[in-house]
Each structure stands twice: as C-alpha cells, then as structure tokens.
Amino acid sequence: MKKLSVFTFVVLLVVLMISSVTVFAKDDYTIAVVPKMTSIAWFQRMEVGVNDYVKETGVDAFYTGPSEGDGALQAQVIEDLIAQGVDAICVVPFSTEALEPVLKKAREAGIVVISHEAAGMENIDYDIEAFDNSAYGRHFMERIGELTGGEGEYVLEVGSLTSASHNQWVDSAKALQEEKFPKMKQYGDKIETKDDQSISYEKIKEVLTANPNIAAIQGSAMADVAGAALAVEELGLAGKVKIVGTSLVSVSGKYVREGTIDMISFWDPALAGKAMIALAQKVLDGEKIESGLDLGIEGYTNLTLDGKVLTGQAWVDVTKDNVDDPAYNF
After folding, report:
1. Full-prediction pTM beyond 0.85?
2. Three-state SS across the chain?
3. pLDDT tens digits for range 212-233
C-alpha cells in the first residue's frame, strides 16, 4: 500500500473534520411562536413581527396558537408542537399555571422554551420582558394619582387572574397607591376580562352603575381600556372617570383623541415576537446569555438578566399629544 505523505494526511483529516461539522451542525432550527390567542390585534401585530423576521433572516419560524384565550387550548397547541419535534417554543402564556406541566414536558424533550409576559415561570429556559413589570404598573398609578389629585376609588382590570404580567402591573400599582396616595382605595376585587373588550365593557358598566363615583380605571389587557371607555361614555362619565392602561392606538386611539382615555402604554408586539425568536436562536447556538445581551432589535439591545428573566427598555406612552404619530399607527 502506498504511504500517504504527511501533507496529504493532514488535508484528509481537515476534510473529515469539516464533513463532520457539516453533518452534525444544526443551524436550520424550527421555532414556533405561540401567542395567548390569534384573534386580537395585539397578537396579530406579533404575527407581523414573526413573518418579518423570517423574511429578514431566513430562519424557519412560524406562528400558531388558539383563536381564543384559553389555557387548556394553548396547552394543546404546545402538545402538538412537542409531537412535531420543533427545536424551540416561544410562548406568551394565557395562564402560566396551565402551561407549566406541558412546558416541562417540552424541555424534557430537549426543546428550548422562551416565554414573554411570564417572569415567574419555572419550566422555561428564559423569559424576555419588554421592561420592568413593577415599574410599568407603578407608572400607571402615578398617572392616576396625578389625574385624580390622589383621591377616590379606582378599579383594576386584568385579562386573566392567572396572567403573570397583568397581576404584576396591578399589584405594583396598588402598592404604590397605598404608599403614595393614601386617600385612594381600590374598589372591589380585580376584574377579569378574559382579554375581551365586550366583557370589559359589561363589567365596567355594571361597576359604574353601582358606584358612579369611581375616580379611575387601570386596564391591563389590550382591550380593557377600550371596553371601559365605551361604558364610561354611555354613562355620561367621560372626563370624570380617568382611564389609563395597556392598549394599541388601532384599538383605543379614538378614545384617546376624544379624551375619554387619558393615556395608553404599550410595547410593540412585533418587536417582542422578533426578540423571542432571536433569543431562542442564541440559546440553541449555545451562546452565553448575560446582562448586556444585544439582540439587535429596538428596545432589546441592552438586556438585563436576573435569574431567568431578561428585561429590555421598550415601552411607549401615548396621549392626545402623540396619538397621531405614524410611528404608533399599528
């Protein structure tokens, strides 16, 4: 047998190493993005972000989820994704409690799990937040205190009593009220709207009929303040009852222009969708996740890591003064 020269041997070794990397490297990940529900404007905007990210990067990512807000339905979607063998699941939980068991199953199957609006979840690799949730909730109560002169009763709305972020916002708001505005008081219990504008309208109308002296309403789900504003207008209380909360201009801009809603705040769901996918890619690639991480997405360029939670700087306030800014027209 003819002996190989040292040079030929080295060349063959390098070729084998490159071939091995080609065979075993996996950069064609399949990443699923699962919103709370697909039927409302907030998460339809997230779908826009997912689709744009696919076009921009070529990554194999797709958007899927239940059409209505239901923890059991969302869990079934994730069960199906586990069976499909996706590489990563990016999820905005409708109910963190309902998803913990199925996300544990996903991670046991080797699937990377990234959550959003779910800072307290256990069965995830990381949660990514657009901002500090406690600061966001306090920000709303600061506004309510200014608008009411720090007096009167107020109502707190959440999409779900098990929605982690919504409860962080209203709990932080109430804590600030008790500390800074002692003459104010929460009226009744948290109102659960199931992220449904008609439910918010009906429940707020019922509350205001029972107590027309309510001074303010803070909403959490995108549709909460729009439903509340309709109830307030129908009862002739526009301007008297102050309304602030999370929403989009496309949903609540009309009421902001009219002055029925004083302020809406939000982060762009499209950018949040992109950020989840970008983070999932970095985890799959084995990159180090630490404070200062830059995902190359506006608002998520200098993330802060605390435990499993990464926090950005991505919230926006909209009032009468800037409601017609085309940058917020989504």
Report:
1. no
2. CCCCCHHHHHHHHHHHHHHHHHHHCCCCCEEEEECCCCCCHHHHHHHHHHHHHHHHHCCEEEECCCCCCCHHHHHHHHHHHHHHCCCEEEECCCCHHHHHHHHHHHHHCCCEEEEECCCCCCCCCEEEECCCHHHHHHHHHHHHHHHHCCCEEEEEEECCCCCHHHHHHHHHHHHHHHHHCCCEEECCCCEECCCCHHHHHHHHHHHHHHCCCCCEEEECCCCHHHHHHHHHHHCCCECCEEEEEECCHHHHHHHHHHCCCCEEEECCHHHHHHHHHHHHHHHHCCCCCCCCCCCCCCCCCCCEEECCEEECCCCEEECCCCCCCHHHCC
3. 899 999 999 999 999 999 999 9
